[in-house]
Specification:
With about 120 residues, the chain is mainly alpha-helical. Strands 2-1-3 form a 3-stranded antiparallel beta sheet.
């Protein structure tokens, strides 16, 4: 595309965006939302509150501050299944709920992922 064509295209896009912006500025719903936002921010400043404080006050179940949020999210998370691997060469058993177990990782490095996965004895909830 030539530079002139690109310029003309961008100019048309700019004109369209300006028309859209003018239409939005005349929309009563936007004016109402902007007024609400301004009043809410003024009220928060008057009482020294942050948006997170307002959210916690209005919706305590959706409290997203610090440890409460992470504790709440972890409480809803399903516990991983316990996997029990037995090395047929050494007889050693590893029980893990994740794939980052040091011993399991060393086995996979030594024997390969497929071989170690074939040593899976059982899975428990």
């Amino acid at each position: 595309m030539s530079l002139l064509n690109e310029y003309i295209q961008k100019e048309q896009q700019l004109k369209q965006l300006q028309e859209d912006l003018q239409r939005l500025e005349g929309d009563q719903r936007l004016k109402s939302e902007l007024e609400f936002k301004a009043k809410l921010e003024a009220l928060m400043n008057e009482f020294g509150k942050r948006p997170a404080d307002v959210i916690a006050l209005l919706d305590p179940a959706n409290d997203q501050r610090g440890t409460k949020a992470s504790a709440g999210n972890n409480a809803n998370r399903r516990k991983r299944r316990l996997k029990i691997y037995k090395n047929p060469k050494t007889g050693e058993v590893i029980e893990t709920r994740g794939g980052n177990h040091k011993g399991l990782r060393s086995w996979k490095d030594e024997y390969g992922d497929e071989a170690v996965e074939s040593w899976l004895e059982s899975m428990e909830d």
